[in-house]
Amino acid sequence: MFPSIFCRRICWFLASLLFIPWLSAAASQSVWSSAGAAKPQKRSSVQPSVAQAGEAPRPQLLDSGSNPALRYPVAVKDPSVSCGWLDVTRIGINYTVVESEVKSGGAARRKLAPGGAHFLATPVETGGSQGFALALLDIKYAGVQKGVMTMVTADQKRGVIYLGQENWGTVVAKPGTFERFAEANVPGTMAVLRAIQNFDSVLAEIKPPAPPALDVSLHAEPATVEKGRPVTLVWNSTNATTLDLEPGVGHVAAAGGVSVAPQESTNYTLTATGPAGSKVATVFVSVNHAESPPPVVVLTEPSAAAGQTVEVASSPLTIHGVAMDASGIPVVSINGKMATMRPTSSQAAEFRSDPIALNPGENNFEVVAINSAHGQTKIAFIARLTSSPPKTSPAQVNNPAGLAKAEILSLLQGEVPSAHVAELVKQRGIRFAPTPDDLKEIRNAGGGDDLIDAITQASNAARN
To answer: N or C: the chain end with fewer CB closer than 10 Å?
Structure first.
């Protein structure tokens, strides 16, 4: 009997040695079996990620243009543990190591990959863990089992979990915590898998909306004008924050109009800037340059008209006259030599030549006046030097040397004094038969009684 009792006790002792460690391990494992179970602070240093409570994390959007990528913080076991960035695109994934587990003397320690985290960086070898790149077409299987996303290709098998950057140091420094974080971050890992399987859907959820379209228009009313005439520039814009109208206007409101008076044909440009970028509208304004009327020239000494021959009794001859133009005082030359000018107003001046020695017989002269628009008037005449005083004849209505009504009005409008014009009428006569309306028009243009009397006397002499 004694051996039997002794044997039973020995068996119970041996069984307890085997069962108690197993029970302890099972109790420890049950602590990590549920993501929602409370964990005593002393039993773990695992800090839950954002996704632990069931909320799917939002990835970081890289390059929202033509080659977008969704970036997730992850941990990878292959078989050593590393942490870094998993960048998901339409055609593949790229993992860049930032921190990895390095074995040294039997103990684990953290090591930061050179250069830190870089999108699509060259994989960095760090103690057995390195980045990788996989094309979606090469992935034969991708799914989540026990909180770990497994990706299988023809020659690779990768285990990935979502892991917030704040926990990278923990999973790298403490071996064995990878699986525990896997259970705690299932929603985040599922979000990574969804991005791989439905990239465009996830991208649409996080991509910021496109800015409102920018539009701008510019018109000219009218688009063709004479030089110096006003033009109205009218514009409108949509979703613009600033508008600049050039040349010569500057910043303007979102819509409106402005009057300009271009001196030359001009291309106006309106540049609009807004959240969607910039856009330019242009309009061309054509400016026509009307031909400027030629200057008015009246010769007073000798009293000659274009193409006329005058008799001159003595030499030398000094040529006198009046030149006027609406754009300003013209330049006068006599036989190519500049005449001396004495302005009488802003638009008229008396001119005279130096004494000119005459040859016996006919002497040709050309008086030329040029205004600022390069319009010109020429009076060519012949001065015939004779030995006897020139013959005179009463003024005739058809006297070619006489002043026309238009010439008298031009002189007055050019601010030539009425008395001076009256002297010209007395010297040269007139070549029109004045009516009461003509005399009234001349008086309204500035003609005084002395000029009216001179015209009347010249008209009477012509009739006699």
So the answer is: N
DSSP 397: T
Burial of residue 323, with CB atoms counted within 10 A of its CB: 0-12 exposed, 13-18 middle, 19 or more buried: buried
Enumerate the β-bridge partners of residue 224.
286
The full DSSP string for 219-253 is EEESSEEETT--EEEEEEEES-SEEEEETTTEEE-
Pairing of strands 348-352, 224-226: unpaired
According to DSSP, residue 115 is labeled: T
- The 10 Å Cβ neighbour count of residue 15 is 10
For residue 21, CA distances in Å to 10, 27, 29, 180, 207 come to 18, 10, 12, 21, 53
Summarize the confidence of residues 389-394 as an average pLDDT.
45
Dump pLDDT digits (tens) for 401-447. 788 888 888 888 888 888 888 888 888 888 888 998 898 899 898 88
Reading the block at residue 109, the tokens are 């320690």
Contact present, 287 and 227 (Cβ < 8 Å):
yes
Nearest-angstrom CA–CA distance, 8 and 1:
11
- Band of pLDDT at residue 115, cut at 50, 70 and 90: very low
Higher per-residue pLDDT: 24 or 80: 80
Q: What is the C-alpha separation between 402 and 461, in angstroms, rounded?
A: 12
Mean pLDDT over the full length of the chain: 79
- The residue among 90, 101, 97, 132 whose CA lies nearest residue 113 is 97
Distances (CA, A) of 235 to 1, 231, 244, 254, 268: 116, 13, 11, 8, 11
What is the residue type of 218?
L
- Please spell the DSSP secondary structure of 184-206, one letter per residue: HTHHHHHHHHHHHHSHHHHHHHH
Tokens of 158: 């990768």
Residue 389 DSSP symbol: P
